Amino acid sequence: MNVGILGATGAVGQKFIRLLQNHPWFKIEALGASQRSAGKQYNQATNWIEDVPLPDDIASKTVLECRPSEFKGIDFVFSGLDSSAAFEIEGAFAKAGIPVISNAKNYRMDETVPLLVPEVNPEHIELIKNQKFTNNGSGWIVTNPNCVAVPLSMALKPLHDTFGIETVILTTMQAVSGAGYPGVASLDILGNVVPFISGEESKIKPETQKLLANFEDGKLNSPEIKLQATATRIPTINGHMLSATVKLRQSPSDLEEIKKTFLNWKNPIAKLDLPSSPEQVILVHEEDRYPQPRLHADQEGGMQLHIGRLRISEVFDISFVAMAHNTIRGAAGGAILNAELLVKKGIFKKD
Ligand code: NAP
To answer: 0.85 exceeded by the pTM?
Structure first.
């Protein structure tokens, strides 16, 4: 399929370009960004921050304005747009019959838009049928969650299915790449921890509840979960670490039962054989010093969820840490996996 990238010059846009090189199903045919970049050659418009060379065929492409009329012949677009522009632009593409697979926050909580992590809530893609961007259903929007809600929902899903989740106390240690480019000023972050990320904490609870919602009669039924998050920025490059303490609705008999819950969890999309699926979705580390972002964030192409420090909590039921690559599993890689699931499920329609 021919794909376009909106916000192609940003941190997430660059990750899309990197991950889509040699993708067996998707070929990048169009790159869009703001008016600052439109009309320039891609290598002149962007500051390439990936640690692999910029592919020649991409470097020489002309950056387009993010208007549907500029994206003729494109089957769908991935969006890494800044949220200040995403609402209007993504809506315009969907109305023009070009499906959008987005990383931006703007449509995530719309009740007709799937907020999707394929291993957590693949059945939510049915919501697309409720969307009204086009009369014939050719244009629609699917979103992926905030880069904390992704690892959190993946870690909570097996627990929620077995015991139910009542309360979560969460502290995040988020890598600098999560702030995009140029992101946090070096004088703020080097040798430091910043105990606040603007706009981050308020997204975590509603997105996690939506991800864990039951899908019944065409509607989502979200669980009531109490969640208190403290989001901090730390000087790692990639890989958000989460420290969670969880109260379950039914108490586990012991730590072994919790471990077995993770080990026995069945990946609902395992049989689909999607190109970006990791072999092992959840890796539970036994060593107390693992996981670590520098050692583990890139494992399985950056698509694996790492759990560690699993222990019985003296305050609630259990405590653990979870870690995943924020711009791959938490952004571009997650969006590509969403697209693969949608292709396999036959959601794309031709006009
Ligand atoms: P970024 O590096 O700041 O890139 C933003 C992109 O949006 C650039 O390509 C920029 O183009 C484009 N843009 C800005 N204003 C525009 C406009 N008015 N019209 C068209 N294009 C416009 O940000 P990022 O970190 O890649 O994040 C992109 C999106 O993904 C955001 O919505 C963010 O919240 C979300 N997200 C990021 C992460 C992460 O870990 N970084 C994770 C999950 C979700 P120019 O270069 O031309 O300005």
So the answer is: yes
Q: Is 331 in the pocket of ligand 1 (CB under 6 A)?
A: yes
Q: How many domains does the chain have?
A: 2
Atom number, ligand 1, closest to the C-alpha of residue 12? 26
Both 163 and 131 in one domain: the answer is no
pLDDT tens profile 222-273: 999 999 999 999 999 999 999 999 999 999 999 999 999 999 999 999 999 9
For residue 119, is it within any domain?
A: yes
CB of 176 within 6 A of ligand 1: the answer is no
Identify the CA nearest to 110 among candidates 85, 82, 90: 90
Q: Which domain holds residue 9?
A: 2-146+332-344
Q: Is 240 among the catalytic positions?
A: yes
Instruction: Report yes or no: 148 and 239 within 8 Å, Cβ to Cβ.
Output: no
Same domain, 310 and 222: yes
Q: Is the CB of 297 under 6 A from ligand 1?
A: no
User: How far apart, in whole angstroms, are the C-alpha atoms of residue 81 and residue 134?
Assistant: 22
